[in-house]
Amino acid sequence: MNLSHIEHIGIAVKSIDEAKKYYEDILGLKCYALEEVTDQKVKTAFFKIGQTKIELLEATDNESPVAKFIEKRGEGIHHIAFATDNTDEALKTVAEKGIRTIDKTSRKGAEGLDIGFLHPKSTFGVLTEFCSKEI
Ligand code: CMX
Q1: pLDDT tens profile 59-103
Q2: Predicted local confidence at residue 39, as pLDDT
Q3: Quick one: 81 exposed, middle or buried, by C-beta within 10 A (0-12, 13-18, 19+)?
Q4: Are 43 and 34 in contact (CB under 8 A)?
Q5: Is residue 66 in contact with ligand 1, taking CB distance under 6 Å?
Q6: Closest alpha carbon to 76 in 21, 7, 126
Q7: How far apart are CA 52 and CA 120, in angstroms?
Q8: Res 135: pLDDT
Q9: In what helix (H) or strand (E) does residue 39 lie, and over which residues does it extend?
Q10: CA of 134 to the centre of ligand 1 (A)
């Protein structure tokens, strides 16, 4: 399935405006993109460190997975995303090995990537994402 690196770490926050100050003013990283992903009911802010990105996630709706996550568990690490060369194939491969996938096929995520999630109950408590550039 060719996982190459950690593409990003998703962090659920109540307010991107507030959290962004910590990443920029304290850690000295630069926010290079702000994007709303309507399909996922989130606003995102991206920072890059080496090959890996930090993705801040703010819910845009009470029914957003991120709103539910913060209500239940508070702000913090929400998911880890692995880069692969083909999200659809990676989802299929793990499903065939008995892992519960949230998405059967990929959908469009931030930055135009093809994304798909594995259920945290099947991955030792970590919501896991595969993502790839369109092929
Ligand atoms: N990490 C770890 N565990 C999580 C979790 C997360 N991010 N989100 C939910 N859970 C756990 C809950 O704590 C709960 O555990 P318990 O039953 O032990 O309490 C269990 O999973 C079920 O949680 P829930 O609150 O009932 O939520 P749902 O089942 O309705 O949804 C999930 C959970 C993971 C299926 C849903 O959040 C989902 O489909 N996520 C994928 C999409 C997503 O998160 N999009 C936002 C980011 C998009 C982006 O990066 O662009």
Answers
A1: 999 999 999 999 999 999 999 999 999 999 999 999 999 999 999
A2: 87
A3: buried
A4: yes
A5: yes
A6: 126
A7: 21
A8: 62
A9: none
A10: 25
Contact yes or no for 55/61 (Cβ under 8 A): no
* Tokens 């989802």, residue located: 91
Banded model confidence at residue 1, pLDDT cuts 50, 70, 90: confident
Number of H helices, E strands in the chain: 3, 8
Task: Determine the Cα–Cα distance for residues 119 and 34; give it in Å rounded to an integer.
Answer: 26
Cα separation, 46 vs 33, whole angstroms: 5
Side-chain half-sphere exposure of 70, counting CA atoms within 13 A: 19
Residue type, 55: E
In Å, the largest CA–CA distance within the chain is 45
Pocket test for ligand 1, best of 39, 104, 117, 126 (most atoms within 8 A of CB): 117
Q: Is 40 in the pocket of ligand 1 (CB under 6 A)?
A: yes
